[in-house]
Amino acid sequence: MKNKKQQETLFTLVCLALLIAMQVVLARFGTINLGITRFSLSFIPVVIAARSFGVLSSVAVYGLGDLVGAIAFPTTGAFNPCFTITAALSGLIFGLFLSKKADIMRIIGSVLCSQVFCTLMLNSFWLWKFYYSAEKGYPAVLLSRLPQSIITAVLQILFMAFFLEKIARIIKRLLKR
Question: Which of 163, 94, 26, 3 is nearest to 11 (CA)?
Fold first, then answer.
């Protein structure tokens, strides 16, 4: 490598590639069954990207991770780009809230916005439009997904409150080497 800036760029690209790979694995295989709902760990690499590398990085990690995961490990049939767009929007929300700092209010705000707008409203709409519209209405789909969103929001807030800054500090230290 010629200079420090090129080394940092290469390190960032390698980290983002690893975070995308981690997002794919956690989205497909890192789901915890909690009885009444399932909790996915796929948000972890996204918030790490948001906190450590910024807004565009978190959009790329969630968007590309969802795209690669949907193509490599299809679970519900044909690829649907609507869910990938929603994942990228969620990455944008995390990036906008967490890229500068990650205090508890920003963590809560990012999780609530992501859960309400992306998971609850948009993903429920896509599910209703493409899979359930003949069976039940959109409000019924929203209500059926509400408990999962609440549980997920609480668990995401707890994880980020305890671990996000520690992980970001480690990555920033590695960048300074």
Answer: 3
pLDDT at 30: 86
Pairing of strands 31-33, 38-40: antiparallel
Give the residue-averaged pLDDT of 120-143.
89
Closest to 45 measured CA to CA, from 29, 64, 18, 23: 23
Residue 133, Cα to own-chain centre: how many angstroms? 26
Helices assigned H by DSSP within 30-118: 43-53, 55-72, 81-98, 104-113
pLDDT tens string 49-87: 999 999 999 999 999 999 999 988 887 667 889 999 999
Long-range Cβ contacts of 23-31 (<8 Å, 24+ apart): 23/61, 23/62, 23/65, 23/66, 23/69, 24/65, 24/68, 24/69, 24/72, 24/73, 27/65, 27/66, 27/69, 28/69, 28/73, 28/75
CB 96 within 8 A of CB 49: no
